[in-house]
């Protein structure tokens, strides 16, 4: 090994060691993963809330089993408490849970997204409020009851969309809390949207809260936000058994990798990386002399463009203008969902108003375009001129949106 070779190798190893040192010594970024686990002290964990709840509740029971398994074997009365970023109950589990509630029990559900048939069963619709005027969205929360309501709304001072309920059954369901996105420096909710309701079911009741972040460490440790969460617990009977769900947590402990212990330790992790780096350096400097020449293999040609032209030609040859129009409409709706951040599930007046606010068009212009699109969708066949007119309208709309 020559002197220059040794100097070069030593310089590379020293430079690599410095880079690894600076990388290992820099502070870890804040983890905003929405685990809502009672064991996590990250911003969106529930360690603080769980510790506080364990002091207030007479009988707090962590439940690692799925609700279906436990409720099938138990006749105990109490409150089942769920906090998660997303909640999905299959039909069998939902029926078991609702049967348990109907016998005089309580279920508290806090999630940003309720999937499955739960909301349909309760005749409730959920929507998201997204901030379009500012770079960040800060939700505000407050309770409705005058004895629990605060003079100023409580703020979640981190970028977050606001989830709310709409079209609830006001004849039987009760609005308990409201909120909205923060409007500049105002601490009062000007246009309240429902995010906390009580829905009776049989002899029991179901509480639905669309903002699980109010139970997070970050929210509770910010100013006086803990008052909101404490007032919220006033609706629960903490003298009865309180079953704390651990099964639906995103942050529940699941070790799927055999390298979990190795990578979970900072020092073992970097020792592992150094080993890999050493092997790579050995291959680069010692292995290249011994390796045989490698035949150059030309990469496969990208046939996407030719494929697209072929498929388009097939449609044109068949003169299936309706199929082309349907695909163009699907792509246009995808453009609206991804670029304009607007839900296209239901093309109603709310949709037209929202799309008009986010583009340079009036409500009448938006409605006119979609009436034409709906008319095209309802026809079994369309002419070439109608297809050309549709293309002109969509292209013009996207260009000036």
TrEMBL record:
Coiled coil regions in record: 373-400
Keywords recorded for this protein, A-Z: Coiled coil, Membrane, Transmembrane, Transmembrane helix
Short name of one Pfam family: DUF4350
DUF4350 domain mapped to chain residues: 39-233
TM region(s), chain numbering: 267-285
Source species, domain of life: Bacteria
InterPro entries: DUF4350
Protein name: DUF4350 domain-containing protein
The organism of origin for this protein: Mesonia maritima
């Amino acid at each position: 090994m020559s002197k220059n070779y040794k100097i070069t190798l030593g310089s590379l190893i020293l430079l690599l060691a410095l880079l690894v040192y600076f990388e290992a010594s820099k502070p870890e970024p804040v983890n905003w993963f929405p685990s809502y686990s009672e064991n996590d002290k990250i911003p969106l964990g529930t360690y603080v809330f769980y510790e506080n709840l364990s002091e207030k509740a007479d009988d707090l029971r962590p439940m690692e089993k799925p609700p279906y398994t436990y409720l099938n074997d138990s006749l105990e009365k109490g409150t089942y408490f769920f906090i998660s970023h997303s909640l999905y109950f299959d039909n069998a589990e939902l029926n078991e849970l609702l049967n348990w509630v109907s016998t005089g029990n309580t279920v508290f559900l806090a999630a940003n997204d309720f999937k499955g048939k739960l909301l349909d069963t309760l005749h409730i619709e959920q929507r998201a409020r997204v901030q379009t005027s500012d770079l960040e969205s800060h939700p505000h929360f407050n309770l409705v009851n005058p004895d629990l309501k605060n003079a100023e709304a409580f703020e979640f001072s981190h970028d977050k969309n606001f989830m709310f309920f709409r079209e609830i059954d006001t004849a039987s369901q009760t609005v308990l809390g409201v909120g909205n996105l923060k409007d500049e420096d105002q601490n009062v909710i000007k246009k309240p949207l429902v995010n906390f309701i009580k829905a009776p079911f049989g002899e029991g009741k179901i509480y639905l809260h669309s903002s699980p972040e109010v139970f997070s460490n970050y929210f509770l440790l910010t100013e006086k936000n803990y008052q909101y969460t404490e007032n919220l617990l006033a609706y629960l009977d903490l003298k009865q058994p309180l079953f704390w769900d651990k099964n639906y947590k995103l942050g529940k402990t699941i070790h799927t990798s055999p390298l979990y212990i190795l990578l979970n330790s900072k020092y073992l992790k970097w020792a592992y990386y150094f080993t890999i780096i050493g092997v790579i350096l050995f291959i680069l400097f010692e292995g290249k002399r011994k390796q045989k020449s490698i035949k150059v293999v030309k990469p496969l040609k990208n046939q996407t463009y030719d494929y697209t032209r072929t498929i388009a030609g097939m449609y044109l040859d068949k003169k299936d203008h309706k199929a082309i129009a349907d695909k163009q409409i699907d792509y246009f709706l995808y453009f609206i969902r991804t670029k304009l951040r607007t839900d296209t599930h239901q093309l109603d007046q709310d949709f037209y108003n929202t799309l008009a606010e986010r583009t340079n068009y009036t409500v009448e212009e938006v409605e006119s375009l979609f009436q034409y699109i709906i008319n095209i969708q309802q026809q079994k066949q369309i002419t070439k001129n109608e297809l050309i007119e549709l293309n002109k309208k969509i292209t013009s709309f996207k260009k000036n949106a």
